[in-house]
């Protein structure tokens, strides 16, 4: 597979590392993370989550955190992230006849349960990643809506 890494604030972000990498992050947008291989340990001053292969997590805007990305024994660490803001949430609510929550989230880090919907969304994007070509930002935003 080609080495692909985008700016972490783009709507779709993919990164792959063959050794342990530690970073400090400040999230400006909502982020849903899927670890494709290896594990990620994300922590802030009050919370710590460990995301294993094929698991999802949510990171809220305004979160300052540290992430440790650990490769699997036989494969590099791989992560794919979707970044979105209030506009995407409001567009989704409008197109799907649901109310968006106006209350700010009271947490920054959360594990997400696997579901058919989230698996289908990330599965549709994994075809691009596997081919070494990433979709443009507009296509990613359309998929989120």
Using brief descriptors, characterize the structure shown.
single chain; 145 residues; alpha+beta; Jelly Rolls; five-stranded antiparallel β-sheet; 9 strands; 23% helix; globular; disordered N terminus
Write the layout of secondary structure elements.
Layout: E1 12-17, E2 21-26, E3 30-37, E4 39-43, E5 48-51, E6 55-59, E7 64-70, E8 77-84, H1 86-95, E9 109-112, H2 116-131, H3 137-144
Antiparallel strand pairs: 1-8, 2-7, 3-6, 3-8, 4-5, 4-7, 6-9
Describe this entry's structure for a reader.
The structure is a single chain. The longest helix is centred in the C-terminal third of the chain and has 16 residues, at 116-131. Strands 1-8-3-6-9 form a 5-stranded antiparallel beta sheet. The protein has one domain: Jelly Rolls (Sandwich), CATH 2.60.120. The protein is built from 3 helices and 9 strands; from the N terminus they run E-E-E-E-E-E-E-E-H-E-H-H. It is α+β, with helices and mostly antiparallel strands and 145 residues long. The radius of gyration is 15 Å and the shape is globular. Mean pLDDT is 80; it is low at 1-6. 23% of the residues lie in helices and 37% in strands. It has helices at residues 86-95, 116-131, 137-144; strands at residues 12-17, 21-26, 30-37, 39-43, 48-51, 55-59, 64-70, 77-84, 109-112. A hairpin with a 4-residue loop joins strand 4 (39-43) and strand 5.
């Amino acid at each position: 597979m080609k080495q692909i890494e985008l700016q972490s604030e783009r709507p779709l972000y993919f990164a792959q590392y063959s050794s342990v990498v530690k970073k400090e992050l400040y999230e400006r947008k909502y982020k849903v993370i899927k670890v494709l291989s290896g594990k990620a340990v994300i922590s802030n001053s009050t919370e710590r989550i460990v995301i294993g292969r094929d698991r999802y997590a949510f990171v809220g805007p305004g979160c300052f955190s540290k992430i440790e990305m650990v490769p699997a024994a036989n494969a590099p660490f791989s992560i794919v992230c979707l970044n979105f803001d209030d506009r995407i949430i409001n567009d989704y609510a409008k197109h799907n006849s649901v109310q968006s929550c106006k209350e700010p989230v009271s947490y920054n880090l959360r594990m997400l349960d696997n579901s058919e919907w989230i698996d289908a969304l990330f599965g549709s994007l994994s075809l691009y990643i596997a081919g070494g070509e990433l979709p443009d930002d507009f296509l990613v935003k359309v998929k989120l809506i």
